[in-house]
Write a structure and sequence with these properties.
Oligomer: single chain
Number of strands: 12
Strand content: 15-25%
CATH architecture of the largest domain: 3-Layer(aba) Sandwich
Order of helices and strands: HEHHEEHEHEEHHHHEHEHEHEHEEH
CATH topology of the largest domain: Rossmann fold
Helix content: 25-40%
Radius of gyration: 23 Å
Strand order of the largest sheet: 3-2-1-4-5-6
Structural class: alpha/beta
Number of helices: 14
Largest sheet: 6 strands, mixed
Number of domains: 2
Amino acid sequence: MILKTNCKYFPGDRPCIPNKTKGTLCDNCKEYSPVSYKILIIKLDAPGDVLRTTSLLPTLKKKYPDSFITWLTRYNSIEFFKNNPFIDQLLVFENPDTISRLLVEEFDLMIHPDASPVSSPLATLTKASEKKGFLLSSFGKIFPINSEATEWIEMGAFDQFKKKNKKTYQQIIHEIAGLDYSKSEIQLYLDSNELKFKKDFIKQHNLERYKIIVGLNTGASKRWQYKKWRAEGFEELITRLSVNKEIGILLYGGPEEEENNKSLITKFPFLINTGTNNTLREFFALVDITDIFITGDTMALHAATALRKKVICFFGPTSSAEIEDYGLIKKIIPNLDCLVCYKSTCDFVPSCMDMISTDMILNAISESINELKL
């Protein structure tokens, strides 16, 4: 048999790319690449966390250059991995054949950095010579496999530990995975079609007339409404930014922000609306237009960071310490003792987000403009 089923390019149910494009057979294929080390990463939730967990990939490939990396995630996160050169195989949690595959396939290393009751059983089922992160006990409770994972589960269990933490999420997951951390970046790659979509939008709205493009992301997840800045703050910020005619202001958001963004556009017709019903990949391409991106602690923060934008991010209920700034992010943090509460409701008046002033953000914008050296 001339088949080389241990090749990373062999799919089994169809011709491989070298055969399809060049007619190459296994016995004389110069692209034959035997898999010598198999890695499985299990990371399902939440989409923003899935995106920033991709910072593991360059470090893994550096340590295991001949590895074959499989990532198991939810359907709502698969778009993050499009064009990603580090991923060899993507498994989708919702696919009915995923569990049966995990029961059969074997890996050299399994990394599961989530103390999650949903994904921990998958990590426990996985056949791997070495496991890092979290499993589910026969008692039905999550437990850390290695000592490096203990710190993360303690932060999830005790508010005091979460508040005291000074490590970034990226450093924590690298330690859980047994990897050295050197600020490996979040991985997000736009393809030619997406870059054309971006270019067409710039042309359609004549954005080249502006020296600086500022993006305002007005939304946050349903779960964390207190990640959002107050509407009056955005209105004041737009009013004061609009004085500088060299600045173009783009408005961003999802379906949940449609009404709020329409209201802003009614009050400020000069705003450029990027829309609230874009696909995820279109949203990324539109974010790539900006020079400075203003947002709460959301998935958009991680996307803008991956695209190496200057980012201004405001924090309240979530941990600013866990956000790796990569020299790109300016963090707006109100002076309150109750921060990092991870509450979805708040009785304090004023709230942490109410304490963030327009001047705080304008000062950060001014600093970012100076750093851009346009």
